[in-house]
């Protein structure tokens, strides 16, 4: 990896003006493209202490070997140039959206002598009017089948059209009235083009005038006693109304707008777009992307807008269907500053474009629907990737090869530490078997053997406690092979002394046959060992986990670490990490396991914090209502810190006078917390469901919280 200081520009060399910059690697490949209002301020931010940079940014600047820039006159020009360079160089550290499926569109080839209606995929062609995209091709064909009765436009291929012209006989659609048969001269090219124009206008949302005209023709035919013609027009009206029902009105006033929603996690993001034309949803599309750069929701929106409209020009009405740039683009978050992006859109449309976040009414409700679609798309993408048996098998094999394991790790356990500024330190253990989560095997730990923030020491404690329980279960199931542990003493009954259960002197602990509890039929806690332990962290956490296993004499469990948002896998005793390809299914599985452990730890930590916020000691303070009680807890962060505060410090909280402060201090001093109960076999803290800490024996301990 390169040292950023080796290619850092000299002071004063970078201009203080808008521009676009490129980072290149040692092979001169462009790896990142960005824009800035001030090149000097933006580029200087990349060359600070690497420890202060976002992890992905740090990876980018250490991969790069040079940086160059281009000065432009305005931020809008910078936006245009950034889009062009991203499209040209395809940088690996830029967000790149990819369609989660190839969406089909309804196309009318107005660039041909006899325009054709057909389903099209892929890039747009000049002179073709597009409508959609649609989720399914069959939805397009259903709509077209209904409309061909009224607008009998050609739908056949060039070969069929040429063949019919040669033999002088139309195809089947010509015989049944769903094609005007221009191939045999039933209509002139001008008449057929007029039909195609009417078809396009109807699809673009201009249906009201045509329907009223058709209804008047039907009434005139009935009045003239031309009942067959009137019946034909009646059937045409019914067909058009059925076609219109497929796209219900969602916005009033014939609004033209695109709604963009984003669903994201730390690794991936899904974008969904609804195209509303004439107040109706005319198309839908979506993308999924890996978040390979440090980017927030507003940044994802900006990238999506660039990709969506980068090749568009003109307004939506001129382009037809969902093409072009609409009058309104509704998004969940606005990039800062928003003016350059709005001006860029306005230039592409040729008139003013409103780029904003909907705040109320129908548009906000529709945005919520688009957001739900984005969340479902992201969940579906992850489910498909995780549930495929072949993919999971390949992921496990890749992990085994990368970590030099004898067999694929069919059971993986991952551990994460969570705390709030050193308070309420907890840990989580999640289990994945055969690449799928086993939530019934999840466990939670409280770190109580020391105070303060020390993730390495916490990891050592949690791993030690978990595997001491595993050794205890082996002893209980008569599987224990007596061997001295690295820490020394072994109890007479075969278990390490630290794990010995409280039993009358001279009594042996009863051995139960097998890891399945005969009373419940469920696996005993910690009865099964993993083939791989994954810790959330780098070298220090990995070393602590390996040391805990060695102290217990366990040498058949592999250990690795995965630091947050990094693509590096750390193994014990190695100075350099194991590098898995960014597209590796093995890396994806490790990230998924790590993220699940992080989620589980955070949820436990938050639940503990919410319990502590409901501090019973403050409830009894006379004259202290909910507002001032919350103000106290918000100011000090926890009941523990409030208890340690002086009267003068409590008085600094807005709304708290000296008399109230003295009352609070006295109430907290008289309600000191009782010592927690400890499981003597494992050292684990025992906690009731209401947050109390009763005195209990190991046999009283129940549930998943350890």
From TrEMBL:
Q: Where is the GIY-YIG domain?
A: 16-95
Residues covered by the UVR domain: 208-243
Instruction: Give compartment(s).
Output: Cytoplasm
Name-wise, this protein is UvrABC system protein C
Q: Which residues form a coiled coil?
A: 211-247
Which segments carry the region annotation Disordered?
Answer: 474-525, 683-706
SUPFAM superfamilies tied to this protein: C-terminal UvrC-binding domain of UvrB (SSF46600), GIY-YIG endonuclease (SSF82771), RuvA domain 2-like (SSF47781)
Family under the similarity heading: Belongs to the UvrC family.
**The keyword DNA damage is assigned to this record:** yes
């Amino acid at each position: 990896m390169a040292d950023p200081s080796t290619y850092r520009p000299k002071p004063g060399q970078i201009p203080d003006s808008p521009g676009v910059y490129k980072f290149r690697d040692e092979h001169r490949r462009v790896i990142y493209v960005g824009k800035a209002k001030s090149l000097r301020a933006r580029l200087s931010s990349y060359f600070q202490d690497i420890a202060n940079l976002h992890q992905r940014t740090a990876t980018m600047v250490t991969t790069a070997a040079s940086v160059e820039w281009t000065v432009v006159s305005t931020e809008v020009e910078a936006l245009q140039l950034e889009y062009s360079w991203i499209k040209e160089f395809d940088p690996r550290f830029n967000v790149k959206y990819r369609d989660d499926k190839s969406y089909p569109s309804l196309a009318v080839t107005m660039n041909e002598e006899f325009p054709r209606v057909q389903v099209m995929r892929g890039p747009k062609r000049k002179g073709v009017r597009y409508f959609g995209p649609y989720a399914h091709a069959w939805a397009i064909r259903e709509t077209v089948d209904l409309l061909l009765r009224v607008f009998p436009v050609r739908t056949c291929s060039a070969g069929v059209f040429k063949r019919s012209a040669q033999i002088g006989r139309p195809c089947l659609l010509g015989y049944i009235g769903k094609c005007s048969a221009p191939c045999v001269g039933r209509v002139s090219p001008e008449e057929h083009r007029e039909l195609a124009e009417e078809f396009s206008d109807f699809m673009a949302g201009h249906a009201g005038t045509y329907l009223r005209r058709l209804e008047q023709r039907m009434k005139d035919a009935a009045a003239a006693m031309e009942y067959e013609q009137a019946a034909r027009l009646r059937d045409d009206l019914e067909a058009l109304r059925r076609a219109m029902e497929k796209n219900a009105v969602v916005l009033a006033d014939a609004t033209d707008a695109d709604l963009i929603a984003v669903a994201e996690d730390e690794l991936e993001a899904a974008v969904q777009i609804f195209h509303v034309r004439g107040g109706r949803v005319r198309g839908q599309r979506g993308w999924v992307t890996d978040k390979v750069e440090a980017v927030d929701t507003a940044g994802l929106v900006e990238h999506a807008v660039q990709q969506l409209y980068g090749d568009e020009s003109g307004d939506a009405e001129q382009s037809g269907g969902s093409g072009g740039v609409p009058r309104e683009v509704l998004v969940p978050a606005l990039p800062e500053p928003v003016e350059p992006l709005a001006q860029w859109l306005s230039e592409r449309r040729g008139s003013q474009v409103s780029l904003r976040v909907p705040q109320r009414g129908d548009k906000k409700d529709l945005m919520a629907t688009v957001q739900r679609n984005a969340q479902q798309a992201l969940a579906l993408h992850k489910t498909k990737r995780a549930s495929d048996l072949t993919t999971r098998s390949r992921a496990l094999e890749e992990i085994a090869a990368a970590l030099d394991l004898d067999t694929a790790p069919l059971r993986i356990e991952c551990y994460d530490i969570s705390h709030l500024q050193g308070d309420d330190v907890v840990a989580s253990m999640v289990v994945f078997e055969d690449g799928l989560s086993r939530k019934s095997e999840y466990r939670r730990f409280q770190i109580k053997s020391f105070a303060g923030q020390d993730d390495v020491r916490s990891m050592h404690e949690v791993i030690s406690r978990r595997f001491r329980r595993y050794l205890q279960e082996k002893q209980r199931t008569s599987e224990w092979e007596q061997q001295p542990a690295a820490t020394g003493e072994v109890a007479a009954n075969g278990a390490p002394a630290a794990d010995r259960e409280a039993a009358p002197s001279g009594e042996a602990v009863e051995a139960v046959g097998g890891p399945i509890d005969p009373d419940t039929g469920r696996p005993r806690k910690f009865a099964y060992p993993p083939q791989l332990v994954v810790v959330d962290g780098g070298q220090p956490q990995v070393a602590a986990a390996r040391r805990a296993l060695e102290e217990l004499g366990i040498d058949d469990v592999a250990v690795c670490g995965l630091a947050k948002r990094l693509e590096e896998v750390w193994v014990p005793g190695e100075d350099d990490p194991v590098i898995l390809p960014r597209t590796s299914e093995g890396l994806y599985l490790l990230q998924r396991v790590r993220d699940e452990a992080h989620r589980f730890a955070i949820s436990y930590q938050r639940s503990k914090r919410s319990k502590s916020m409901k501090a019973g000691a403050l409830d009894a303070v006379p004259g202290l209502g909910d507002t001032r009680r919350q103000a106290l807890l918000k100011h000090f962060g926890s009941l523990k810190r409030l208890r340690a505060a002086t009267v003068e410090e409590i008085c600094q909280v807005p709304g708290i006078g000296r008399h109230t402060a003295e009352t609070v201090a006295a109430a907290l001093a008289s309600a000191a917390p009782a010592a927690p109960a400890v499981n003597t076999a494992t050292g684990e803290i025992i906690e009731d469901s209401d947050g109390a800490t009763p005195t209990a024996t190991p046999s009283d301990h129940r549930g998943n919280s350890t």
